[in-house]
Amino acid sequence: MSDVKTPMLDVRDLHAFYGKSHILQGVTFTVGEGEIVSLLGRNGVGRSTTAHAIMGTVDRHGSVLFRGEELINLVPHDIARKGLGIVVENRDIFPTLTVRQNLLLGVKNIRKAGRWSMEDMFELFPNLRERADVMAGVLSGGEQQMLTMCRTLMGDPDLIIIDEPTEGLAPKIVAQVASLLEEIARRGVSILLIEQKLTIALKISHRIYVMGHGHIVFEGVPDDLIHDESIRREWLEV
Amino acid sequence: MLEITIFSLLNGTVYGLLLFMLSSGLTLIFSMMGILNFAHASFYMLGAYFGYTISSHIGFWPGLIFAPLIVGVMGALLERYALRHVHKHGHVAELIFTFGLAFLLEELTQFFWGTDQQAYKGPSLLDFPLFTLFDANFPAYKAFMLLISIGIFLGLLLVLTRTRVGLIIQAAITHPNMVNMLGHNVPFVFMATFGVGTALAGLAGTIAGPVMGTYPGMAHDLGSIVFVVVVFGGLGSLAGALVASLMIGIIQTFAVGLNYSVSDFLVTIGVSFPADHFLHDIWTMTLPQVAPLIPYLMLILILIFRPMGLFGTRET
Lengths: 238, 316
Prior knowledge:
Oligomer: heterodimer
Order of helices and strands of chain A: EEEHEEHEHHHHEHEHEEHH
Largest sheet of chain A: 6 strands, mixed
Strand order of the largest sheet of chain A: 6-7-8-3-9-10
Number of strands of chain A: 10
Largest sheet of chain B: 2 strands, antiparallel
Low-confidence stretches of chain B: none
Structural class of chain B: mainly alpha
Helix content of chain A: 25-40%
Structural class of chain A: alpha/beta
Strand order of the largest sheet of chain B: 1-2
Strand content of chain A: 25-35%
CATH architecture of chain A: 3-Layer(aba) Sandwich
Shape of chain A: globular
Radius of gyration of chain A: 17 Å
Low-confidence stretches of chain A: none
CATH topology of chain A: Rossmann fold
Radius of gyration of chain B: 21 Å
Strand content of chain B: under 5%
CATH class of chain A: Alpha Beta
Helix content of chain B: over 70%
Distance between the termini of chain A: 27 Å
């Protein structure tokens, strides 16, 4: 394996359940400080469940260490306050609140300035500035995606989990998302990127994990995956 | 007629805003937690009884402060230590739980205070007519009820729309999981909302007890109207609760004040029926007689023509 930095997030033998369905069956992986790590796989293999199991919103057992501290018994808001942030797949914006109010709700501690200010967000995405006082529910899909990412960044996470950020977006917006991810990494935030397609993962990731049937079935650097056609065919291609 | 109009409007507004104090808590709790709290009006009853007991020992004003506080703390504890656990078993279990709780609280009230109406009096400070119009007095205490209700409404509006806590509550109503994952303690927000909702019901009871009576059936009498209000306004809508409360309050008060029947109307257009006509009893039924039915008639009509309520967004 390539140069794995000090594990910031260390997930070991993670199991997760939806009712009686055993979705994650012993998932193990790490994300280092300042790393961009991608978790790939087809629909239904448990990628989003992994994200929710880390954040504590599904029944789970196993171990999730964040900077050496066990999170498995913590509730979601405490996990978020340890320095984790998530951008969920279905872009859960608050539709009846304005763009500005959505961003304000991302802030965990109003007394402490984080890496990101609202001004930063507006500079990165001028569209959001123009529409700061309109209801978030009327934004386009691309703008909503930007808003959810910015909202999570306002909480100043040290590690951000981003689930399918490019799903359904126009190519121009996908490029914007990719450059935001690189900007996030530049500011020292680790990223766990969850993708089905290889839209941006191969370009920006330091390391890649592939999931299949609730397990990790491959780990390596992007080059390894580019050259391993059998893995791509068996676990990624439709 | 002018006298009836002015007094019915004033009294209807007092009654309507009192209904809003109850329905706002009920609708907030429902929209946040999905709990249709059948025991909500029981907290209104407890507010009146606690207010009565405290006022008979240390005066009305301490009762006005402490009774709602005690009721609010009881509500918060109920959410934290009972409803949160019942919630895991689904909404049916919650419904049955709150339904049973309403009976339990009524029985307990009778156990401690008896079945008779209590002599709960308003403060002597407000025991005077504020103004006299057409030889009728408008009591200062009713104006005080009006002021408190308007104050509560404005306070709620300010907290919900102008504060960070209000934003968190608004977002948690529709996306509790997401708000939780952003680092906000949603379970605590739920408990606090439940506490504030029940405290508002308690406050409504504390101020209404002296004028509407403090007796064990008061929860049952007002509880069903409050449910009509939240369904009519739209489950989960505060604006709907306000409009429906005022509508029901004013319509019901007008109906009580207007001593007319269908036959009176028919006579004015020259139609009359003999006294032995088989529909005679219906023609001659007066508005005050049917006044108690009006909210339920409104409930049925809204369920037929607009099941989501005036301001509701979902068909629940």
